[in-house]
Amino acid sequence: MINTPHNADPRQAELRETWRRVQVDSDPAAADPVVLDCARRLLADPGDNGARVWVAGLAEMLPYLVAQPGPEAERATVEALLAAASALGGQSCGHETHPYEKDLGTLAEDAPAWSGLPTGHLFADSPIRPPNEADLCPANIAGIARVTADTIRPFSADGIPAVVPADHISTVKSLSSTLWDYPNSDPATELESNANCADWLATRAARAGYVITQHASCWYAVHRLTERSVFDAMIEGLETVLPKLAGPATCAHDADEHPDPEFESADIAEIGFHLRSPGGRAELRNTLDAYPPDAWLCPRYLRDLAEEAVAELRAAHTSKFGVRDTSGMDSTCVRPDGTLHIVALTMFVADADTFDETAENIALWAARRHATTDDPHEKLVLLLLALWVTQVRDLPYGVGREVRAVLRAVDPAPLEADCRHGDDHPGERVRRWDELDFAAHLQHLYAARTFPVPEGAWSADTWRCPRFLADWARELILELDERYQLMDEEDGDEESVYSGEW
Hints:
Elements: H1 10-20, H2 28-44, H3 51-60, H4 62-65, H5 71-89, H6 99-104, H7 138-152, H8 166-179, H9 187-195, H10 204-224, H11 228-241, H12 265-274, H13 278-284, H14 293-296, H15 299-321, H16 330-333, H17 342-351, H18 358-370, H19 376-392, H20 397-408, H21 428-433, H22 435-446, H23 460-463, H24 466-483, H25 485-491
């Protein structure tokens, strides 16, 4: 057992001050000699009582060692730390746990700041408290050496406890439920929060895990979410990390040696989070049989993932929040005689699957044509078409703001008066749930002589009832206003794009 010193050693204080000056932005020409001196002293006798000082010294310089050390400084550091872990870790002790293990579970990241938690007590001049027996236990120092080595060079050290940071366990559970499509929290908040940590990803493995998790989350954002802030955060985060994925343009891996990113996204996202901490990587050691650990950290592989995710997110951002071009839809939606192709318009909506933008484009096209046509009957049908799609789809902001402008143009005055139809207006069932039924009603309303009367049909007078239309428009406007509040504030866009009456 290493003895606890009773008095501070002035030489240790001087050394520690030298090590503290080696920071993330230090010049390698000045920092590398300090690192190499410490590593060589440790490697000279890694099992000696004084090894704790050199282990602590290298841990103190961890912010620099995960940033820009020279190749020799990095190699010598990892070699010395692993030698110390091997020499000290084989000594028996009576401790069930050690201080460094407690610290592993309290962190949210593979962070260089970790070094200040367990190593500060290895010096007799610690401002917090002097080192105690558990701090100076060879097994504790060996553990610090392993974790420090593994933070510099991921998967380099065996014997690290599989202690996944508590924050990661909680986040993985929540994110997995979202990626399985059964979210137990707000998915937009979840994905935006996960994206917003790119600036403080200090290590190679943390950045790798971040890219893998963001790529695995990309499909959900693209196909499920309409909040612009999520896309902004994910794009910004990936573009922040991309320049830091240093490495050659090619790699030594065969094509099939890179992990398959199309595997279950929830499982891939969990692997990404585990890559971001020493304890998480220890957990992964027994589960990465299909691919070697270095394949998950391959810079070329990670750049490909990041660039692919950014491209998909940018395309979705443009589609969801930009101005879509619907001019090419005229040939599909309008007959040669200038009348609406009502079957195409309604069935495109009724038959569109969850990921299809066709229904959104129909609503946008209908809103734009509504603003230009002078035919009252066509205006009514186009308004009903826009109301229907808005009812059954979560329109992205770029589409919804134009549709909302048309809905705002519906005169709200009739809401204050009774109408002769009483409660005999088309109900929520036909408006919200039975899309084929609504399509049949709209086809008959537009061309009563061409299309059969649907069961339970309402008269044209009921469909054009000002109170019915005002009530439906108000319901949807309130929903859109709530959903778009933040984006409206960002754009300063509270006014309708169009004016006029339906």
